[in-house]
Amino acid sequence: MSSLSQILYTLSYVLLPLILAIVLHEYAHGWVANRYGDPTARMEGRLTLNPLAHVDPFGSVIFPLICLIMPGGLLLGWAKPVPINPSRLRNPRRDMALVAAAGPGMNLVLAIASALLISLFFRIDPSLAASWPPHPGMEPRQDLLGMILLPLTAMASYSVLINVLLMTFNLIPIPPLDGGRVMISLLPARSATALSRLEPYGMLIIVALIVLDPHIHVISTILGTIVNVLAGAILWGVLV
Predict the structure, then answer these.
(1) Contact (Cβ atoms closer than 8 angstroms) between residue 175 and residue 155
(2) Which of 21, 94, 136, 194 is 20 to 30 A from 102 via CA?
(3) What's the total number of domains in the chain?
(4) Are 160 and 16 in contact (CB under 8 A)?
């Protein structure tokens, strides 16, 4: 188990990128739904960037802390799902796939934007590379530019990883995850109906796999490999 000081140190860099990733993910769902004819999220006050409207006590706070404490745990979390009424969409089958894909799409945009910020910070202060990455016990930078840019670079770096992880995790084709909803929209009617029957049990399956992962290494091996490759490709694309 990580020490309390290490957890608090990591949280100081992770918390803001995680909140932004989760809130903007849900906002994107609501915005696209509203764009294609379903104003439910807007009418219920969920088409907002206010984190309090989206925070789920377990998924946004408790579960990410559990992941942070677990050895080698993946940092995951979720917000309260934005309410969607497919019957109000102009083309329910097509538009529901677009609504579901909007969340992971937003995470991809945020990951790329965060990588571009890192590139900008390194151009502003090339000496950041000598102080990178920050870790407990490292002598803090004493100059004003370093004290500002080093924490921002750390948060942007975590933002790349968090957003790529949330994008990849949400594209798992098990409802109610976004990948499952996209598959339901794309599959033939009989197959889509069969997959949709998993929805009441989908999150239980995912949480069980994550809790058991230190022993079976399914999620960390598959998801971890994909996340490392994608995050590395994004960072390489903007830093090289």
Answers:
(1) no
(2) 194
(3) 1
(4) no
Token pair in block for residue 200: 């009441």
Residue 213 structural domain: 4-239
The 10s digit of each residue's pLDDT in 84-143 is 999 999 999 999 999 999 999 999 999 999 999 999 998 998 877 776 666 666 666 777
Residues 182/104, Cβ–Cβ less than 8 Å: no
Q: What type of residue is 92?
A: P
Q: Supply the angle between the helices 4-35 and 144-170 in degrees, to the nearest 10.
A: 60
CB count, 10 Å around CB of 10? 17
Tally of CB atoms within 10 A around 36 = 17
Q: Does residue 230 come out as left (phi exceeding 0), alpha (psi in the -120 to 50 range) or beta? A: alpha
Which tokens go with 205?
A: 């399956």
pLDDT of 1 above 70: no
Cα 43 from chain centroid (whole Å): 25
Structure token pair of residue 122: 């390194």
Residues with a catalytic annotation lie at: 26
Backbone torsion region of residue 137, taken as left when φ is above 0, otherwise alpha when ψ lies between -120 and 50, otherwise beta: left
